[in-house]
Structures are given as structure tokens and as C-alpha cells.
Amino acid sequence: MKYTGRITALIIMITAIVVMRLYAYMYLKYPLTAFPMIGVIFLFFAFKAGENCDKVRFLSEKDSLTECHNRRFVNKIFPTLLAQMNNKNEELSLAILDCDNFKTINDTYGHNRGDFILREISALLLTSIRKSDMVARWGGDEFLIIAPYADRKDIKAIVNRFENELLKLSKKLQIDISVSSGCATYPRDAKKIDDLIHFADSNMYDGKSKRI
User: Fold this and answer.
1) Computed from CA positions of residues 60, 2, 148, 153, in that sequence, does the dihedral angle turn out positive or negative?
2) Which PROSITE patterns does the record cross-reference, listed alphabetically (predicted)?
3) What is the pLDDT of residues 108-134, one digit of tens each?
4) What are the counts of helices (DSSP H) followed by strands (DSSP E) for the chain?
5) Catalytic residue selected from 54, 98, 133, 141
6) How far apart are CA 7 and CA 48, in angstroms?
7) Is 141 in the active site?
């Protein structure tokens, strides 16, 4: 969770306290060395107000279970990303990943274990991407990687890196954990987020059908 709200609230309150202390000193002869008890109280309330603001913003942008971005944030930021790609004549790639047989994992090991696995998957995704990329929880056990300035080869490299780490996690937990994935590239495959997702979904299900 970012500290933007808390930092902003404290800066505003400290500035207000300094201005009031200077005014009181210059016009009311109030000593500058006096302990600012009221100011400390106001700082506490400003911090709590900023903290609440940060929590609201976090919940509006992040998935509470995995702390990845949520679908709402992706829909909000995606037009900006595409505009950047257009301005620089660059490609953007995305990959959708679906956890295989996740219902079986939940039924066999319980929902708490299932939630733990989702958190572990999200942590692996966040360490597998580049600094410019983002990860979102797209559905119950579906995740989305968005990679600006990336072609099909780049996004597949990211997915392969994640799958290698996922294999290690599967062995560590002694649970069969795997994902099916599909990729799409803007503007080659589609020019709208829904169409890109549909294209990636189709690739993912084609891959699943070939494995059956």
C-alpha cells in the first residue's frame, strides 16, 4: 500500500501548523519554543485521515487477496498505455493465465490452501515480470500480465520464466500446480482490450485442447 495520502496529509498539516505558529508569534506574542500540543493532535488526525485515503485507493486498485491490480484498474489504465504505444510506435503484449484444475485443488486441499496457492502464484508473477509490466487478477483463478514495449517473443519469455518458478513451487508444496496461457499483441492481433483478451483466451483454450 502506498503512503501518498498520509504523506500529503502530513505535509499540508505541518505547513498549516508552521503558518499558525508564525502568525501567533508575530501578532499574538506566542512563544515559538512552546510545545505544540494542539499541533501534535492535529498531526495525528491528519495521519489517520491520510491512512484511510490510502486504504480506499488501495482497495479500488488492488485485489485484496493477492495484492495484484484488479480488473477495474486495468480498464482504467489501459487506454493510457495504448496511447503511449501509439505515440512511440511500440507494441504492447499481454498474457492471460488460467490455473489448471483449480477446483480440484480447492476440493482436495480446502479453500484456505487454495487461497494460499493464489497468493503464491501472484508473488511468483510479480517477481517474473519486468519493472515496466503489471499483473492483475482477472478472475477467480485467472491472472493477466500486461507488458508495454513487448512483442510476442518478450511476453512468452516472461510466461516461461514464471512457469519455471511455478514448477519449483509445485515440487516444494507437492501439489500439481500448473497454468494454461495465451498471448496477444497490440496492435498486431487487436486494438481494444476486450478483443486482445478474447484473442489471448482463444490461444489459451487452443493450447489446452491440444494437451487433452
Assistant:
1) negative
2) GGDEF
3) 999 999 999 999 999 999 999 999 999
4) 7, 4
5) 141
6) 11
7) yes
